[in-house]
Structure formats: structure tokens, C-alpha cells
């Protein structure tokens, strides 16, 4: 049985190698000839087992945050073996900058409280180094850091998790323990909505697509375009950001109904929607232009309760229902519907998504099939980790929704693709 750790290494190799096409990324030189740089493989660990990118210069690997580098080229098949074995040969990690140079560069650097100036490394051929403000560990807590509970968001597992800490100092200590910064959301215990949330520094409380409250500065919202849009509140806004700022400050859900100024008495029969969108009237009989293809975050297997009282296993399933029936549905709240007679709509991980962007082309290549298999594997892995958190799942692909069939399907397609590459001389 393949372990989940090895499976994830293979998944990383699939997605980086085949999706990026192993294209070299070289530094650009203006007005002068570039100095010679070694080209090879960039790794995110000191053992050269976790791939970042292949066919990349040593300098670019360092600047992009790589930890180690190997100077081999055109080694796609070997990379696969290194990742599931003991790592790549001739693995060289980047040297940290000497303390004297660090003190000189960080002398005038102003970092926020509980952070300090650090210079991770000096990159070969770059001619300069950059400084960053990182969390100071162990934290130095003052009296104000022990006053009252705080709510923070932990991103270390890949899925955001809200945690209430007894104090901000405890949150800092946990950040150091996990070696990842836990973001302070607001003071006080974590809440399921903006009700009762007191935001610091004149910030406003808004909820995200998962109904989680966040304290943000509404005036900092900026957009590049200046196209007028019609909001679902019936008002015309100069651009999307003006709409977002209004929604942010009013703490109401206002989204774009369609582009252009609001049309009095508009209906779906009089409103032309752009290509790829359909018109559906919402709960207030106002027309909306909706795209029926699902985004990646909408395909995530997270239960939601829709305004029709039905529980959907993902936001994408709810969108499919809207586009299929023509009846507008919105998220009532995350999680299962509480009504005793409520229905539940689910989809098996092996079933094809009925959304447009999930339908394979007639002459779909092995590469495209692998992309679909990888995306399904990633979504199921995230769900498995979420459900198995804090439990011993056995460390194999049998746990949660990570089924063996989908994984082996991805492996089979990869091997066929590699065989075609070798026969065709692409090695």
C-alpha cells in the first residue's frame, strides 16, 4: 500500500512537472550579457525530495524561495524516482548570509511588533539580498499580550481553521510551535458571524464565502477597471470596487448583478448577458447574469445549506441546480440544513461533475485526463485531512474519500504519458 506521504510527493511531481510543462525560467539581463548560471532542479527541502521546479537557474531558484538546488538537466524521469526515494544526488543547499552583513542590512528595517528582520540567504549572481520581517520565536510578550482572548486563523493544514486563544501571547507561542504564522482576526472569542465582533483600528467586519467574519479596511479595496456595474441592491456603482466598499461598510451582501448601469424594470427577456453567462431572476425578481462553470473553490467538498432548504455537498452542486432549473439559489449558511425534512444532494468523488468546465473534450489528451485526476485527488485529499484531523488515519489511501481507484487511475495515465515522452525523445 502506498503511504499518503509518498502519494502527496507523487501528486506534487504530477502537477508541477506536467502542468507547467517543465519550461525553463531564466533571469533577464538588460543592456549587458548575462553571467553564466547553473541550470537544474529547484527543491523546497534540504534533502532535495520536494520539487519546486525543473529546468531553472540556480539564481532564480534561490530568489523564488528554494532551499536547495541540483545541477542536473533533462531528468524528468529521474525526478520521479528521487521524490519517492532518498532524494536527488549532488544536493546543495543555499548558504545563509553572514551575521555582520545581516546586521548592516537590517539596521534601518522597521518591523511590526513580535516580528524581527531576517535575511534568509544571499542568492548566487543576484548582486543583492533582501530582508523580510518574520515572527520572533520564542515570542517576547508584554503585559498587553495577556489581556483577554483573541481569535486567530491557522492555515497550516491547508484548510483555514478558527481558534480561540486565551491571549495573544498564547497565539504567538502556538505560531512558533507550528512554524507558521497564525493570523489575528479580532479580539475576543471566535464567532460564527459578524454579530458582536469588535474590529480594531476602525476596520469593518465582513464575512467570506464560508460565512466566517473578518476585520478588514474597506477603504483599501482597489480595482483596475472603471466599468459601471449594477448591484443586487438596485444601485449603480462606478466600478466593482465601489460596490465592494459599500457592501463592506454596510455589512450586507451586495454583489454584481450585471455590467453597466442598472436598468429600471429590467427582466431576463430584456437583459443581454455576455457569452458564457445566463440570466436568472433572483429572489427579488431582479435579473442576474450568472456563469454556470464552477470555480475550483466552488468544487471543494464543503456542505452548504441553500435558500431552498436543501443541503448540497458543494457550492458547485448548488450552482448546477440553479443553471439546470432556472430557479435562483443562494447560500443560506454553511453546514447542513437544520430542517427535519430537508433533502441532501451529494456526488461521489468518482462521478463526473455536470458543470461545463468538468466535461472532457471528445479528443481529450492523456495530459488533460491527468489534470482532471489530479484535481479530484487534491480535493479528496483535503477533505480526508479535514475529517481525519487529530485522528490516526493509518497513513494510507484508504482513509476518508481518498480511494485507491482514483489514485491508480492518475498513476496509469502518468505512466502512459511518460512512455510516450520517452518514445518521442522527450526526456
UniProtKB/TrEMBL annotation:
One of its GO terms (molecular function) is calcium ion binding. Residues 342-355 have a biased composition (Basic and acidic residues). One of its GO terms (cellular component) is extracellular space. Residues 342-368 are annotated as: Disordered. InterPro entries: Fol_N, Kazal_dom, Kazal_dom_sf, TB_dom_sf. It comes from the Eukaryota. Residues 1-27 form the signal peptide. Coiled coil: none annotated. The keyword Glycosyltransferase does not apply. Residues 127-192, 209-264, 283-339 form the Kazal-like domain. Keywords: Disulfide bond, Glycoprotein, Repeat, Signal. It holds the Pfam family Kazal_2. This is Toxin candidate TRINITY_DN22030_c4_g9_i2.
Amino acid at each position: 500500500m502506498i503511504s499518503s506521504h509518498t502519494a502527496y510527493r507523487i501528486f506534487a511531481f504530477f502537477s508541477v512537472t506536467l502542468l507547467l510543462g517543465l519550461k525553463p525560467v531564466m533571469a533577464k539581463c538588460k543592456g549587458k550579457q548575462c553571467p553564466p548560471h547553473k541550470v537544474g532542479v529547484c527543491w523546497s527541502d534540504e534533502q532535495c525530495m520536494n520539487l519546486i521546479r525543473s529546468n531553472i537557474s540556480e539564481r532564480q531558484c534561490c530568489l523564488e524561495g528554494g532551499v536547495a538546488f541540483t545541477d542536473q538537466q533533462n531528468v524528468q524521469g529521474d525526478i520521479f524516482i528521487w521524490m519517492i526515494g532518498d532524494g536527488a544526488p549532488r544536493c546543495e543547499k543555499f548558504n545563509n548570509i553572514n551575521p555582520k552583513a545581516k546586521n548592516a542590512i537590517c539596521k534601518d528595517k522597521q518591523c511590526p511588533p513580535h516580528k524581527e528582520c531576517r535575511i534568509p540567504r544571499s542568492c548566487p549572481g543576484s548582486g543583492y539580498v533582501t530582508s523580510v520581517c518574520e515572527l520572533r520565536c520564542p515570542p517576547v510578550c508584554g503585559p498587553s499580550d495577556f489581556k483577554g482572548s483573541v481569535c486567530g486563523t491557522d492555515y497550516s493544514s491547508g484548510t483555514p481553521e478558527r481558534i480561540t486563544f486565551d491571549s495573544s501571547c498564547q497565539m504567538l507561542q502556538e505560531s512558533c510551535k507550528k512554524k507558521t504564522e497564525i493570523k489575528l482576526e479580532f479580539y475576543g472569542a471566535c464567532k460564527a458571524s459578524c454579530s458582536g465582533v469588535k474590529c480594531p483600528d476602525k476596520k469593518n467586519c465582513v464575512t467570506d464565502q464560508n460565512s466566517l467574519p473578518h476585520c478588514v479596511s474597506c477603504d483599501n479595496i482597489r480595482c483596475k477597471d472603471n466599468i459601471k456595474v449594477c448591484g443586487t441592491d438596485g444601485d449603480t456603482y462606478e466600478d466593482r470596487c465601489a460596490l465592494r466598499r459599500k457592501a463592506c461598510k454596510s455589512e450586507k451582501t451586495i454583489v454584481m448583478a450585471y455590467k453597466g448601469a442598472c436598468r429600471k424594470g429590467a427582466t431576463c427577456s430584456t437583459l443581454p448577458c455576455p457569452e458564457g453567462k445566463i440570466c436568472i431572476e433572483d429572489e427579488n425578481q431582479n435579473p442576474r447574469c450568472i456563469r454556470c462553470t464552477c470555480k475550483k473553490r466552488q468544487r471543494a467538498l464543503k456542505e452548504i445549506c441553500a435558500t431552498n432548504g436543501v443541503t448540497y455537498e458543494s457550492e458547485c452542486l448548488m450552482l448546477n441546480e440553479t443553471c439546470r432549473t432556472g430557479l435562483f439559489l443562494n447560500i443560506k449558511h454553511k453546514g447542513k440544513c437544520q430542517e427535519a425534512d430537508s433533502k441532501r444532494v451529494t456526488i461521489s468523488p468518482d462521478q463526473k461533475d455536470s458543470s461545463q468546465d468538468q466535461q472532457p473534450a471528445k479528443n481529450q489528451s492523456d495530459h488533460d485526463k491527468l489534470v482532471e485526476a489530479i484535481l479530484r485527488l487534491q480535493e479528496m485529499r483535503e477533505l480526508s485531512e479535514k475529517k481525519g484531523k487529530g485522528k490516526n488515519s493509518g497513513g494510507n489511501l484508504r482513509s476518508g474519500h481518498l480511494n485507491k481507484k482514483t489514485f491508480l487511475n492518475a498513476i496509469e495515465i502518468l505512466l502512459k504519458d511518460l512512455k510516450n515522452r520517452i518514445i518521442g525523445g522527450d526526456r
